[in-house]
Amino acid sequence: MEWLTKIDEHFVFVLPFLQKTFSLVCHQEKNKLLFFDGAETLACARCTGIYLGLLISSVLVLFKLSKKKFHINILLIASVPMIVDVLLTSLNIYTYSKLIAFSTGLLLGSIGFFYLYAGLNNLILELKR
Description:
mainly alpha
């Protein structure tokens, strides 16, 4: 994020690379970016929520490894609010809300991490065989 340049001005050299990298997975529309301390995020509110949810869940897994298997329906249910939000804003039923987009992304990202984690564990076990 741009606020990294406020911490150390050397980060300004990495910023174009990061912007290009995030542009591969996010539309980065200016009106949908979050602003912190006068600097904008490199991803829209929804994508920022997804990434933050992934980060929070990964930190939680570090402290307590979850051996519980999640049914795919939980992931589908967690994705419903985001799908509904995208549909309703695309159909102009209500205006885009950064808070709602961030919240739905946070929900899906935090739940989605456990499926990503389980998939990577399964892949590692498969490769060991």
